[in-house]
Amino acid sequence: MAKHTLYIEMENCIGCRSCLAACTQCGGHDMRNRNYVLETDPFVSRQTIPLMCLHCVNPACARSCPAQAIQIADNGAVLSALVEKCIGCQNCTIACPYGIPKFDEEQNLMYKCDLCYDRSKDGIPPMCASVCPTNTLQWLTEEELAQKDSQVKLANGKWTASMLGALEGETNVKISLPGILQGKQKLF
């Protein structure tokens, strides 16, 4: 089976929040979104961007967990804390450079995007990518990603692989930045 990667073409986001609604429908999400839509600067622009776990190659959330409750799947997905291991210390929510993990006070448990692991482990796109009407969220093979990379570099130079200063480190989710975010020192 071909390896897939979530690719986010942020400039396409229209803020419809279909990804949020779909996220609640993914198995194991308990009707709770695990991603967000942010207005970048509502006074200057109507640009919105989807925010979700970028599934870091060396995730700070997992490194900071004293109970080793956060696991990394074979496909690179950084999974939500395991119920039976999470001690509710919230180190992961503090350690994440993007502020993505959230803490459920009632369940005493961290939750975040897990790329709909019940689907993505079999090569099926995460729910958010399945419903995005503008192709902001795309589930691409390595070949499609390489093709997209060369197209974007030729078209506008927005591919973040060449601008890792905007991100904290290597991630398993790839991003193309909208023009309004070009030159930002930090995205989150």
TrEMBL record:
<keyword id="KW-0004">4Fe-4S</keyword>
<dbReference type="Pfam" id="PF13247">
    <property type="entry name" value="Fer4_11"/>
</dbReference>
<keyword id="KW-0479">Metal-binding</keyword>
<dbReference type="InterPro" id="IPR050954">
    <property type="entry name" value="ET_IronSulfur_Cluster-Binding"/>
</dbReference>
<feature type="domain" description="4Fe-4S ferredoxin-type">
    <location>
        <begin position="4"/>
        <end position="34"/>
    </location>
</feature>
<feature type="domain" description="4Fe-4S ferredoxin-type">
    <location>
        <begin position="77"/>
        <end position="106"/>
    </location>
</feature>
<dbReference type="InterPro" id="IPR017900">
    <property type="entry name" value="4Fe4S_Fe_S_CS"/>
</dbReference>
<feature type="domain" description="4Fe-4S ferredoxin-type">
    <location>
        <begin position="44"/>
        <end position="75"/>
    </location>
</feature>
<keyword id="KW-0249">Electron transport</keyword>
<protein>
    <submittedName>
        <fullName>DMSO reductase iron-sulfur subunit protein DmsB</fullName>
    </submittedName>
</protein>
<keyword id="KW-0408">Iron</keyword>
<dbReference type="GO" id="GO:0051539">
    <property type="term" value="F:4 iron, 4 sulfur cluster binding"/>
</dbReference>
<keyword id="KW-0677">Repeat</keyword>
<keyword id="KW-0411">Iron-sulfur</keyword>
<keyword id="KW-0813">Transport</keyword>
<dbReference type="InterPro" id="IPR017896">
    <property type="entry name" value="4Fe4S_Fe-S-bd"/>
</dbReference>
<dbReference type="GO" id="GO:0046872">
    <property type="term" value="F:metal ion binding"/>
</dbReference>
